[in-house]
Amino acid sequence: MSPLFAQLINLLGAVLLLLAFAMISQRRILSLIHLFTLQGATLVIATAVVGHVTQQPHLYVSAGLTFVLKVVLIPVLLHRVIDRLNVRWDIETLINIPTTMLIGILLVIFAFNLALPIAQLSTSVARGSLGIALACVLLSFLMMITRAKAVPQVIGFLSMENGLFFAATSATYGMPMVVELGIALDVLIGVLILGVFMFQIREKFDSLDIRHLEKLKEE
Questions:
Q1: Which residues contact 76 (CB under 8 A, 6 or more apart)?
Q2: What distance in Å separates the CA atoms of residue 112 and residue 129, rounded to the nearest whole number?
Q3: What is the CA 135 to chain-centroid distance, rounded?
Q4: Is 1 a residue whose pLDDT tops 80?
Q5: pLDDT tens for residues 39-70?
Q6: Which pLDDT tens digit goes with each residue over 116-141?
Q7: How big is the chain by its Cα radius of gyration, in Å?
Q8: DSSP for residue 27
Q9: Which residue among 60, 110, 172, 201 has its CA within the 20 to 30 Å range from the CA of 148?
C-alpha cells in the first residue's frame, strides 16, 4: 500500500473518530441517527479504498453490504422507530456532556497507547488506524453506558461494531466473507430484536428510560 493511500485511510479513520466524538456529545436522537449514517458512509469509503489498493474483491462486497445495512436499511428502521415512539430528544444523560467529553479524550489517549505495541507488529502501512478503531469502540461504549434511553444505546452498539469493522478492514485487510456475512446478519437481527425490546418498554412504562427496568426486579 502506498503512503498516499495509507494517509487516506488514516484520514477516513480520523473522520470516524470525530463522528464518534460528535455522537457522545449529541442530545438530539434524530441528529444522532444522521451522525451514525455518516459514520457508516465513511466506513463504506474506507473499505472500498482498502479493497482497491489490496485488490481483494470481497472487500467491495463488504463495502456494498455495509452501505445497504449501515447507510440505508438500519437508519430507515431507526427513523421508523422514533416516529412510532414519537421520540426526538434524549435529554437525560447519566453524566453531563463536558464530563463525558473529558472522559472521551482520556479514552482516546488510552486507546492509542494500548494499540501502539500491537500496531508496531502489524505489516499494514495503515497500522495507525488500529488505535483510531479502538478509540471509536471505547467512545461508542461510553455512549452506551452514559445514556438513559434505549434508542441511543442501540446506536452506540451499532457504532461500536463500526469501529470493530474498521479495525478488521484497515489493519488486517478484511475478514473472510463468511465471517463478514455472519456479523452483518447478527447486527441486523440485533437491531430487530432491540426494536421489539424498545416497543415493549414503551408499552409497559410509557417511556424509553431503561432505569424503569429495575421495577421488573421487584415484580
A1: none
A2: 9
A3: 11
A4: no
A5: 999 999 988 888 888 888 878 888 888 898 88
A6: 877 666 655 456 788 888 899 999 99
A7: 18
A8: -
A9: 110
Could you give the dihedral angle defined by the CA atoms of residues 143, 164, 77 and 215, in that order, rounded to the nearest 10 degrees? -40
- Measured over the CA atoms of residue 86, residue 17, residue 103 and residue 130, the dihedral's sign is positive
- DSSP per-residue codes, the chain: --HHHHHHHHHHHHHHHHHHHHHHT--BHHHHHHHHHHHHHHHHHHHHHHHHHHT-HHHHHHHHHHIIIIIIIHHHHHHHHHHHHT--B---BSS-HHHHHHHHHHHHHHHHHHHHHHHHH---TTTTHHHHHHHHHHHHHHHHHHB-BHHHHHHHHHHHHHHHHHHHHHHHS---HHHHHHHHHHHHHHHHHHHHHHHHHHHHHSS-BGGGGHHHHH-
Strand partners, 93: 147
Q: How far apart are CA 55 and CA 158, in angstroms?
A: 28
Residue 134 contacts residue 111 (beta carbons within 8 Å): yes
How many whole angstroms separate alpha carbon 161 and alpha carbon 89? 24
Helix/strand/coil for 1: coil
Instruction: Say if residue 152 is exposed, middle or buried (CB neighbours under 10 Å; 0-12, 13-18, 19+).
Output: buried
CA distance 116 to 128: 8
Diameter of the chain by CA atoms? Answer: 61
Report residue 68 as a C-alpha cell: 445497504
User: Phi and psi (nearest 5°) for 147?
Assistant: -105, 140
Q: Which residues are CB-contacts of 6 (< 8 A; sequence separation ≥ 6)?
A: 125, 126
pTM: 0.78
